[in-house]
Design a protein that fits this description.
transmembrane helix; 0% strand; Polyol/monosaccharide transporter 1; transport; 22 helices; disordered N terminus; single chain; Growth Hormone, Chain: A; mainly alpha
């Protein structure tokens, strides 16, 4: 279907539908991550596992995502974005079936490991696919949908904990863990009906197929032709070439040499891009928010809430707050920009953490059973506020920003490097959280995270130029300036 007219500032329905379908895998990832928070309460009781085994079961998902991250970017350059999403779905299906069977701790660990491979693929490929399908005017919105989908998955995980937790001890948590197998198979079938990334098609020399896709996901023929020219230039194909199929080197088709370009004497602008992209992923995790969310039932328990039903209900509020503020972020990204949202988000998390420091110190210094009710209520409210501040910037913008700033030839593998760092820091936080708060108390742990968030705010302010409204092919120009201050003066003030 060829579109010959339309407003370039209008959200293309076909592009939106493709991104929405692909983000199902993000919802599965969010659900698989969060449902374990409540399931661990029941697993620990039935299987009688230790706190160390609890930490291993919580952290192994992201530990196993690391090897998948190492190959997902290169694989998606080789087989395409669609088939990589399908492969991720298959991993989630197999992992969920095994965890649902869950007859012993080793079986749970194997299932969680397999699901971890799905996480590694999902975290990279959905963001890449969304960015490459989107037009510049709505790229922030569409590329933030995977994060919104993750948070919807978080909320569904919390709701599953609460409602299925009322079933028998043997049945409830197993159903919780098996549920993702259903949408995983559905997504495999759905992806067969969706278009491939036009940028990947151009990398393969399939210009005719890429043009057909661009006509579907653009609002006018003129917009499609302009995007096609920019992609051709990025790949190194003459923009006046009219052939349907052209020869491109094997290195271009498979993404060969991308890692060497990034790490062996990178050009100044590639170096700046790499620092910015890796930095936002590291600070997303060492801010400590995900560790707090994963162990929120334990934190609420330490605050004086002992009933399991009440604990799980309290966690639902976290999912609601994250989802609502991520949705708000989707609409703000293309209006006020990425950099401002990160600064506001980081500042809000800092003050929320300070509030948690005070409340937890008061509760922990109270006698058992005599914890002040106001401090317990305030702790819950502050965690909800922190979830909102985290979602509006650190959660959503990290994936949008790191995906869009890499050049096409480096994008999939560059994001793979970022996700590796993301998962390493995530595993470090998740697997050490219980040990840290047992050593320095919850208040001390929250104060530690205040420090990491202050560093994060400084990093966002100092190293990230604004990218709102710029085409993917224009990012090297933005980061190729002599300094970030020049970029911010030229683009930041106009886009703020």
């Amino acid at each position: 279907m060829e579109s010959t007219c339309g407003d370039v500032n209008h959200l293309n329905k076909h592009a939106c539908a493709c991104v929405l379908a692909a983000t199902i895998i993000s919802a599965i990832f969010g659900y698989v991550t969060t449902v374990m928070a409540g399931a661990l309460l029941f697993i620990k009781e039935e299987l009688e596992i230790s706190d160390m085994q609890v930490q291993l079961l919580a952290g192994i998902l992201n530990a196993c995502a690391l090897p998948a991250c190492m190959i997902a970017g290169r694989l998606s350059d080789y087989i395409g974005r669609r088939y990589t999403i399908m492969l991720s779905s298959i991993f989630f299906f197999l992992g969920s079936i095994l965890m649902g069977y869950g007859s012993s701790f080793p079986i749970l660990m194997i299932g969680r490991c397999i699901a971890g491979f799905g996480v590694g693929f999902a975290l990279i490929i959905v963001s890449v696919y969304s960015a490459e399908i989107s037009s510049p005017s709505y790229r922030g919105f569409l590329t933030s949908l995977p994060d919104l989908s993750i948070n919807i998955g978080f909320l569904l995980g919390y709701l599953s904990n609460y409602f299925l937790g009322k079933l028998s001890l043997r049945l409830g948590w197993r159903i919780m863990l098996a549920i993702p197998s259903i949408p995983s198979i559905g997504l495999v079938i759905l992806m067969l009906q969706l278009v491939e990334s036009p940028r990947w098609l151009v990398m393969q020399g399939r210009l005719g197929d890429a043009k057909k896709v661009l006509l579907l996901i653009s609002n006018s023929k003129q917009e499609a032709e302009q995007r096609m020219k920019e992609i051709k230039n990025a790949v190194g194909i003459d923009e006046n070439c009219t052939q349907n199929i052209v020869h491109v080197s094997k290195k271009t088709r498979s993404g060969g040499g991308a890692l060497k370009e990034m790490f062996y004497k990178p050009s100044p602008h590639v170096y700046r891009i790499l620092i910015a992209a890796i930095g936002v992923h590291i600070f997303q995790n060492i801010c400590g928010v995900e560790g707090i969310f994963l162990y929120s039932p334990r934190i609420f328990g330490r605050m004086g809430i002992t009933d399991k039903g009440t604990l799980l209900l309290a966690t639902v509020g976290i999912g609601i707050s994250q989802t609502l503020f991520t949705l708000l972020s989707c609409f703000l990204l293309d209006k006020i920009g990425r950099r401002i949202l990160l600064l506001v988000s980081s500042g809000g998390v800092i003050f929320s953490m300070l509030g948690l420091c005070v409340c937890s110190a008061i509760v922990e210094n109270s006698k058992l059973g005599e914890e002040p009710l106001w401090a317990i209520i305030f702790t819950i409210i502050v965690i909800y506020i922190m979830a909102g501040f985290n979602a509006i910037g650190i959660g959503a913008v990290t994936w949008v920003y790191s995906t869009e700033i890499f050049p096409l030839r480096l994008r999939a593998q560059g994001l793979g490097v970022c996700v590796i760092m993301n998962r390493i820091t995530n595993v470090a936080v998740v697997t050490s959280f219980i040990s840290i708060y047992k050593t320095i108390t919850l208040g001390g742990t929250f104060f530690l995270f205040v420090g990491t968030n202050v560093l994060g705010w400084w990093f966002y302010y100092s190293f990230l130029p604004e990218t709102k409204g710029r085409s993917l092919e224009d990012m090297e120009t933005i980061f190729g300036k002599n300094s970030n201050s020049e970029v911010q003066m030229k683009y930041g003030s106009n886009n703020a």
